[in-house]
Amino acid sequence: MWPQGIPWPKDRPPVPKELKWDLWLGTAPDTDYIDNLVPFNWRGWWKFGTGALGDMACHIIGPSFKLLKLGYPTEITGMASTIYSGIFQEADYPESIPVSSKLEYKFKLKDGRDLKLYWIDGGFVPDRPEELDPDVNENEALADIPEENDFEGGSLFIGTKGKVSCGWGGSHPRLLPLSLNKDINIPKKYPRIEGGMDGHWWQWIDACIAGYGNAEVDSPFVGYAGPLTETVLMGNLLLRSFNIREKIKRHDPVYGDVEDITTPGRYITYKWDGANMRITNFEAANQFVKREYRQGWGKLEL
């Protein structure tokens, strides 16, 4: 949906006269203006955004938190795509978020059982459900809007007795196999905001106009917004740490003593202390938990 896994541009074009660049940067680090950043593609750069995970996961895994009453994850493992700029030479684009990733979160449920939640992006999808016929397009079958192929991400719940899928935000839930949905008519349990997605925007605008405490706002995130957001950002701690590089010297059986690069943040399990917002077994990851605000823009308090 926006570029990721690319080098920071070298060109330094002039700031458009209609853009107040310093104001747009806000708390972010002082940075030269580049083309194709404003108003949308900033999402793919660590200085400003949090990638596909930070942008969409609250919408996609939100139903899991609401239905399963999840809290903080206890650990996470994962991987990200790598790009090569030469023969046996992995590219190093620390400013840009990886093109694709796969993460596995582990939660402890209130009854003591473990639950795993997976995040997959960048063109990859979960293993194809065996309940789908061979000729069925998986994206279309699990799409947000049936028969329109409006697939912006979705969720697949795999239980002991069957599978259920839904689009982002919990839209259009369906049982697998799809034939089970023909005669289902379940009454709506939760109130809907009038006007659908546009209604959410107008509700936010009306609340701003009314002022704090003067308007009732229906939120689907009551009771779990904090753990949900921290879960998403914990995934980005792993993705940023995935590309931490350290220079080392080693002995190669062919080339002798050589200088090389090691990536200590890859392929380990990250243990998370949700109450204190820290990775407990890889200290280097904690540098990304918070950042210093640009001078003149206050201080971040957590």
> With helices defined by DSSP (H or I, 4 residues minimum), what is the helix count?
6
Number of strands: 12
Counting helices, strands and paired strands, the structural category is alpha+beta
Rg, Å, rounded: 22 Å
How many separate structural domains?
2
Low-pLDDT runs: none
Largest sheet, in brief, is:
5 strands, antiparallel
Helical content band: 10-25%
H/E series = HHHEEEEEHEEEHHEEEE
Strand content: 15-25%
The pLDDT mean sits at 90
Shape: globular
Distance between the termini: 31 Å
Strand adjacency order, main sheet: 5-4-1-11-12
Task: Explain what you see.
- With 302 residues, this protein is of the alpha+beta class.
- The protein folds into two domains: 1-49, no CATH class; 52-288, no CATH class.
- The chain contains six helices and twelve strands.
- The chain has a five-stranded antiparallel β-sheet with strand order 5-4-1-11-12, with helices on one face. It has a three-stranded antiparallel β-sheet with strand order 6-7-8, with no helix packed on it. A two-stranded antiparallel ribbon has the order 2-3.
- Strand 6 (154-158) and strand 7 form a beta hairpin.
- Helix 2 (51-60) runs antiparallel to helix 6 (225-241).
- The longest helix is centred in the last third of the chain and has 17 residues, at 225-241.
- It is globular and about 70 Å long.
- The model has no long low-confidence stretch (mean pLDDT 90).
